[in-house]
Design brief:
Blueprint: E1 3-7, E2 11-13, E3 18-25, E4 33-39, E5 46-51, E6 58-60, E7 68-73, E8 78-83, E9 92-99, E10 113-114, E11 118-123
Parallel strand pairs: 2-11
Antiparallel strand pairs: 1-3, 3-8, 4-5, 4-9, 5-6, 7-8, 9-10, 9-11
């Protein structure tokens, strides 16, 4: 049974930083590209960042370029999202997702596995 478990979300002030983690189990992690998405109430799930199987290629949504960094540790079956210069508009539930293909994708429909999400709240 595949499980993705996110952690690290909390309340933080604008301008602050957070690091989200997503621990994967039940799958061959290094065969999977991974992504982060976020969703606010009343809005559709939005692409944040993605990384290929090796960690050699990354891709970011326009709103987070230059502020967020996605990385992975295949030895620990974990993907990370370093979030810097946080803004109130970054407030959302952040979801980790996995797709069996080695290459990344910005489209939520291309991901098979999803975590339960972790809440990030940025106060002004």
């Amino acid at each position: 049974q595949v499980q993705l478990v996110e952690s690290g979300g909390r309340l933080v002030q604008a301008g602050g930083s957070l690091r989200l983690s997503c621990a994967a189990s039940g799958l061959t992690f290094s065969n999977h590209a991974m992504g982060w998405f976020c969703q606010s109430p009343g809005k559709e799930r939005e692409f944040v960042a993605a990384i290929d199987w090796s960690g050699g290629r990354t891709y970011y949504g326009d709103s987070v370029k230059g502020r967020f960094t996605i990385s992975r540790d295949n030895a620990k079956n974990t993907v990370y999202l370093q979030m810097n210069s946080l803004k109130p508009e970054d407030t959302a539930v952040y979801y980790c997702a996995g797709r069996i293909f080695s290459d990344y994708s910005p489209l939520a429909r291309n991901y098979l596995y999803w975590g339960q999400g972790t809440q990030v709240t940025v106060s002004s």
